[in-house]
Specification:
Elements (H helix, E strand, L loop, with lengths): L10 H10 L6 H12 L4 E4 L6 H12 L9 E4 L3 H14 L8 E4 L5 H9 L4 E4 L1 H9 L10 E4 L2 H6 L3 H8 L7 E6 L4 H10 L4 E4 L10 E7 L5 H10 L6 E4 L3 H13 L4 E4 L5 H12 L5 E4 L1 H4 L9 E4 L8 H6 L9 E7 L4 H11 L3 E3 L5 H18 L10 H8 L4 H22 L19 E5 L9 H12 L7 E5 L4 E5 L4 H8 L3 E2 L2 E2 L2 E3 L12 H10 L13 H6 L38
Helix pairs in contact: 2-3, 3-4, 6-8, 16-18
The structure holds adenosine monophosphate.
Length: about 600
């Protein structure tokens, strides 16, 4: 491994590097620094965020600039205000031993006159977002006509954000003979166009292979029906008690909605998207940095430039439209040599997109089962036990100990341990004990399920107030089948599915033939759809089944059966053919309890 001393860096920089605690150069630094120091050249560097690229261009830039001259010699363009501030901050740290070197950040949403006066005082290095930069050039507040170095950082992001023309305008105000260093995580054709148009036979370096994800990131995917995305997200969070994550959604609306639901469910979550004011975004980012927020739900645009080093998980609530965006998302974790996990929630039909991403990032995804309630409870329990063990004792409690002993008097060690862990654990247990596990459509062929099992369609669902548990009870009570006889109950909005072994089929069909409850037919038919139940039966089959049994018009009301007329109380709209609204029947409605597990602090949204 090379040392910083071998790269040709001067004493002031080496001292600053040592202050920062960097032990050895990263790959991009090892490759870029010697080239940039040894000659005047253009450079195209393909490197992810988190690989140390700021220093890869920052060190040579600082070393090459003449701090005794006050005019602007280096310009760094970055896509977001967030990244602009981070780069400025890093450059200031790297150049702290270089007297007279000034670095100024130029970005929107802050006072332009203040920024102009900072530049007037002398700024050898300007770090800017394209919009504000163009604005200031237009107002003659900035002179970049004598710069020697121009760095385009996260070039792909800048172009994604529609800055092509601004960049072109800005570059046209710079001297032709300057050097341009372009850093990009991916190489879409727009970036190649910029490189071709504005650069002169650039040197090229690649860290990893093009578009490749960081090697410290594990990629996982979970198959779920579209409707289960949110419960799956919750399970992923609950199964990882120490999660510190960015959750990516495709739209601002989804971002806001998911964040609100998480907050409502007791998680420390916050939303970050373009409909928020700069002030709101700053608050959310501040809270995220301080780890008051554990789940930052964000759009791709808003999350650009997030530079928080210890993000444990990136969760793709939905896959991005542009596959290349996945590289940026997953690059938010596994930074600075740390390990990270990028999780993707996909429907069965989106699975092929995962294969496409694998080809681009040259990494394999692992298909993971959705954590079950029992697994989550176990994880939480052991997390809790370790947390108790690792908690530093706060001696402020000492003076209260005699009184506490009085309160807890009579409890032995075993009982006390059980009670302590139950304080937190019961909330998870209660929730998951009442909640059906989500099986991936993928895993529908579980080995313990009879391969000849019959799948039924029933025309009642969530809107009638059913949960899987209450619907199972309802079917069992009518058919007198046992708990294990009715399984794979899958409640949809207005209809549901369930399974029995083939020998139960005659009974099921018999009980549900012409069954009318409160004026409404409760109809059960053998489903022609696969078991994920994502769609209704075909209309053809529907009609076929009905005609087999005499058609709707021939059905007789069966309310003479006392047990069924009781059930009839469930339905509040008795008009046949119309959707009926939610049941108020406590006995049948499932639990709505949620684990308020993530502390009581409200998130930001
Ligand atoms: P960047 O890719 O420039 O956003 O850098 C990611 C993080 O890694 C920043 O927090 C840097 O301070 C840090 N970093 C940069 N170079 C090194 C290095 N050689 N050793 C350790 N950390 C580094």
């Amino acid at each position: 491994m090379q040392k910083f001393q071998d790269l040709g860096l001067n004493e002031s920089l080496l001292n600053a590097i040592s202050d920062m605690g960097f032990k050895a150069p990263s790959e991009v630094q090892e490759k870029a620094i010697p080239i940039l120091l040894s000659k005047e050249t253009d450079l195209v560097a393909l490197a992810q965020t988190g690989t140390g690229k700021t220093a890869a261009f920052g060190f040579p830039l600082i070393q090459k600039i003449n701090a005794e001259k006050k005019f602007t010699q280096g310009l760094i363009l970055s896509p977001t205000r967030e990244l602009c501030l981070q780069i400025t901050n890093e450059i200031k740290l790297y150049s702290k031993y270089i007297k007279g070197l000034n670095t100024v950040a130029i970005y929107g949403g802050a006072s332009i006159t203040e920024q102009a006066s900072q530049i007037k005082r002398g700024a050898q290095i300007i770090v800017a977002t394209p919009g504000r930069m163009k604005d200031m050039i237009g107002r003659n507040m900035i002179d970049i006509s004598k710069i020697d170095y121009c760095i385009l950082d996260e070039a792909d992001e800048m172009l994604n954000m529609g800055f092509f023309e601004d960049i072109q305008d800005i570059l046209s105000n710079t001297p032709k003979e300057k050097n341009t260093w372009l850093f990009s995580a991916t190489m879409p054709k727009e970036v190649a166009i910029i490189a071709k148009k504005f650069m002169n036979s650039p040197d090229e370096i690649t860290v990893g292979s093009k578009n490749e994800g960081a090697s410290t990131v594990a990629h996982e995917y979970y198959i779920a029906s579209g409707r289960d995305r949110y419960p799956v997200l919750k399970r992923l969070a609950d199964a990882n008690p120490e999660i510190f994550s960015v959750v990516f959604c495709r739209t601002k609306r989804d971002t806001q909605r998911v964040a609100e639901k998480l907050i409502e469910d007791g998680y420390n979550a916050g939303a970050l998207h373009g409909d928020l004011s700069q002030n709101q975004r700053d608050l959310v980012m501040g809270a995220f940095r301080k780890k008051q927020i554990h789940m930052l739900v964000a759009t791709d645009v808003a999350a650009r430039g997030i530079d928080v080093d210890d993000i444990t998980h990136v969760i793709n609530y939905q896959l991005p439209d542009e596959i290349e965006t996945y590289t940026h998302r997953s690059g938010r974790t596994g930074r600075a040599g740390k390990e990270g996990v990028s999780m993707v929630i996909v429907t069965k039909s989106e699975e092929r997109k995962v294969r496409t991403i694998e080809k681009i990032i040259k990494k394999k995804f692992t298909l993971k089962p959705i954590p079950t309630g029992i697994e989550i409870c176990e994880k939480q329990l052991f997390y809790l036990a370790h947390k108790i063990k690792d908690t530093e004792i706060n001696h402020q409690v000492d003076e209260y100990l005699p009184k506490i002993h009085e309160v807890l008097d009579g409890l032995d060690r075993e009982e006390l341990i059980k009670k302590i862990v139950s304080v937190e654990f019961t909330r998870f247990f209660d929730y998951y004990n009442k909640t059906q596990d989500i099986s991936s459509p993928e895993s529908s062929g579980e080995s313990n399920v009879n391969p000849n099992s019959i799948r039924y369609f029933i025309n009642v669902g969530r809107r009638d107030g059913y949960t899987w548990g209450s619907l199972k009870d309802f079917i069992r009570e009518l058919t007198q089948l046992s708990k294990d006889d009715v399984y794979k109950v899958d409640v949809k909005d207005t209809f549901s599915f369930f399974n029995t072994d083939p020998e139960q089929m005659p009974k099921i069909l018999e009980v549900f033939t012409d069954l009318k409850i409160d004026g409404r037919f409760v109809n059960v038919e053998v489903s022609s759809k696969p078991e994920d139940g994502s769609g209704r039966r075909s209309r053809k089959k529907d009609r076929g089944d009905r005609s087999d049994r005499g058609g709707r018009g021939d059905r007789r009301e069966r309310s003479d059966r006392s047990d069924r007329s009781d059930r009839g109380k469930k339905f509040s709209d008795s008009k046949p053919g119309r959707r009926f609204s939610g049941s108020k029947d406590k006995k049948f409605s499932g639990s709505k309890s949620k684990p308020k597990s993530k502390g009581s602090r409200k998130g930001f949204s």
